[in-house]
Every structure is written in C-alpha cells, then in structure tokens.
C-alpha cells in the first residue's frame, strides 16, 4: 500500500471515529444516567401553527451558523490558526518520525489490553456489589 493510500485510509478511520465516538458515549450513559435521557428528550415548541422540537430548532440554528461561517470565511480558508503551514508540516513530520518505530500490532494489543482490563474491573465491581447486596438482604431476613 502506498503512502497516499495509507494516509487516506487513516484519515477515513479518524473521520469515522469522530462521527461514531459521540454516539458511543451517549449509548454508554443513556441507561446509567437518567438526567441524560431527560435532557435529550424532545420538548415541543409552538409558534402559532408552527410546531417543532427544541432539539430541531437548535440543530437547525447550528446548521445555519456553520453555513454562514463557511460562506463568510471562504470555507474557513481565511481563518488564522495557532501554527502556520510550515510549522504544521514540521510538527506532523516530527510526530510521524517519532511514532514510526511503534508497530501497529503493539497499538492494537495495548488497546485490547485496556479494553479487557476495563471489562474485568467492571465485572469485579458488579460481582462485589451483588455480593454486598446479597449479604445485606440476608442480614435483613435474619433480623
């Protein structure tokens, strides 16, 4: 695979992760934190005969704001940045050089190890919580 193809694949993976990660976080907190469900629940807004939800109004306003920003800044090309183009290229080259020695399999293995560790800790905590609840119910029945 050429450098350009690899860079394009990596870019698409980062883009996809950026799209999916917020949904993943929302799915994780949806059942565990009831206030999230109440916060996101659609609430109706009426103006005369026009009816919509607040989430629809806010998302529509954000879409209009992003459109105006893109039109006003020529697709954000005229916006400044913290680093100039040569500095960005130098920084990217340095990061690529510094991380090129790390094999992809090591990154995958480290990620898998973290996931297994998190799952194991959650199972341990759940088991400890269940045994504590069971002991508490046994003490209540003995009383």
Provide an overview of this structure:
This protein has 143 residues and is mainly alpha-helical. The chain folds into three domains: 41 residues, no CATH class; 58 residues, no CATH class; 41 residues. It contains five helices and two strands. The chain has a two-stranded antiparallel ribbon. Strand 1 and strand 2 form a beta hairpin. It starts with a helix and ends with a helix. The model has no long low-confidence stretch (mean pLDDT 83). This is Integral membrane protein. Keywords: Membrane, Transmembrane, Transmembrane helix. It comes from Microbacterium marmarense.
List the helices and strands and how they pair.
Layout: H1 3-30, H2 34-40, E1 44-47, E2 50-53, H3 54-72, H4 85-99, H5 104-142
Organism: Microbacterium marmarense
Keywords: Membrane, Transmembrane, Transmembrane helix
Transmembrane segments: 12-33, 54-73, 106-125
